[in-house]
Amino acid sequence: MSEKIQSILIVGGGTAGWMAACILSKRVPDMSITLIESSDVPTVGVGEATIIRMARFLRDMGLGEKSWMTACNATYKEGIYFNGFHSKGTHYWHPFQSINTDVTDMWLHRYYQERLEPNSYFEMCYGNTTRNGRNRINIENKVNFDKIERIDYTYHLDAALFAQHLKEKIAKPAGVRHVIDNVTDVKLAENGWVAGIVTEGNGTLEADLYIDCSGFRSMLLQGKLEEKFVSYLDKLPNDRAVAMRVPYSDPNQEMHPFTSATALEAGWVWKIPLWHRLGTGYVYSSRHKTESQAEEELRNHLGEERVRQLPANHIKMRIGRCERTWRHNVVAIGLAAGFVEPLESTGIELAQLGAELLAESLLERPSHASICQRLYNAKMQVIFDEIADYIQLHYILTNREDTPYWHDQKYSEAPLRFETLAKLSRRELSFSNDEAGDVFSNTAWNSILIGMRKLPLRENLPPLDARKYREACKAMDDNFRAAKRQSVEISEGRKNPTHFEFLSNTVYQGAARPDAG
Ligand code: FAD
């Protein structure tokens, strides 16, 4: 496939399909793009928490917070809070603030000298994030409602509304043709490449390149081209979810500016506060719980009374990735390419990365088409595998054995990449602001290792500089004191705004209260 690609057909109109349409229509000039989606096959209906690259996407698309957030019932997200993963009663954070390297270096020295609690790492080094434990927003001075500039916070959003917004505000105005129809078959040419997409009402649609965004069905890449699927189930046993949409009892209390993940008997529960409701669900292993057991545990966890009338949505998850996500003239993006379970909210980011990388490759072609394609496949493999490893650490570094699930996680012998094993065995945390891997920053890697009590050995500590030490200790103590002061202020009724108050007075000014009925 060395000739110039002039037309693209995207199959699927979920978050992945519309993000791909936006990115390609903006970045690859003179491309004719069509997106086909079914009105009979629903989107997956979950996926409401994003991570840090989302801000870059929104900025590139020229979307200001005031307009897109209200259209998508979006809220702010400053990090992820993990509860009960290492042992019951412990917690840790994945903060999105960037690192102050001196401060974090010094925390390690003090950890050994003063026998600090591992959790003090988050309070001393990431006071801004941890302070919002009681719903207080800490980014009020950072946001610029009209133009997104910063990328040390991100968002919760209603994924269905987000896809709709991207379609209406970006993709269609950029010339993307939208077809609503059912795909009934995929035609293959003699050489095994896709020759056309057969539809119910629009005949056969043809293009130079086909993008499979058909969700877990993966109609083109896995369905028709039979691309090999590399399962992660040996590493990540959670293969089911049961999701619920819960109205707020009191948004002022419940709308926290972070995603929370709480460990349960056979997996974990997410809580994602949107503007109009809470999104929640239990991600679990079907080897350890049946559907009805999982639903019962989730209902008990949320308060049986509160959620008695609410329906539960059971979802089967295919955990793993395609061996090659670009094969012949088909590229899969989103769930069609693969899925690592949602603990770190990486699904939408994977779709974004896939589409951005594809846009880059298309601009490079046709001079070395085959290299572009191989490079794309190699990069996507590395990205998927890094995410899978990173998520695996939340489980296998556990100290819990109280249920068969946690026992199995603790004694898991599932493989890890060499890079991850090296990080674990050397226990050398890196506090530089360089990217640690393709997806996760050093902040993220340090958080999981410290949160799961894999602290570096004393002899691996960074060298000590007396002046820097004094300054860093002061900054750390200031953070810590601010966190403590804020909790006193809150208990005494003096406070900076809650996330809900802040949104009500800014982005959602004039909107009805979400619990108004
Ligand atoms: P889908 O939403 O399934 O869309 C598939 C599209 O294909 C639909 O438009 C459908 O109509 C179309 N289609 C299918 N068959 C046909 C046909 N025959 N003809 C025409 N069209 C067809 N990601 C995050 O980033 N953060 C999260 O917090 C998060 N949580 C998750 C929780 C769970 C339990 C699960 C399962 C996933 C989660 N994800 C999350 C992943 C996220 O939901 C997806 O990555 C994202 O929604 C993209 O989905 P998609 O567009 O690939 O597929």
Written account of the structure:
This protein is globular. Helix content is 38%, strand content 18%. It starts with 6 loop residues before the first strand and ends in a 12-residue tail after the last helix. Strands 5-4-14-15-16-13-17 form a 7-stranded mixed beta sheet. It has a 6-stranded mixed beta sheet with strand order 7-2-1-11-20-19. Strands 8-9-10 form a 3-stranded antiparallel beta sheet. It has helices spanning 15-27, 53-60, 65-71, 101-114, 120-125, 127-130, 159-171, 219-224, 251-254, 291-302, 304-307, 347-364, 369-396, 404-410, 418-426, 442-451, 466-491, 499-505; strands at 7-11, 32-37, 75-77, 79-83, 91-95, 154-156, 177-180, 183-188, 194-199, 204-205, 209-212, 229-231, 240-246, 259-264, 267-273, 278-284, 313-316, 320-322, 326-327, 330-332, 338-339. With 517 residues, the protein is an alpha+beta fold. It contains 18 helices and 21 strands. Flavin-adenine dinucleotide binds at residues 12-17, 36-38, 41, 43-44, 46-50, 159, 182-183, 213-215, 217, 241, 281, 315, 317, 334-336, 342, 345-349, 351.
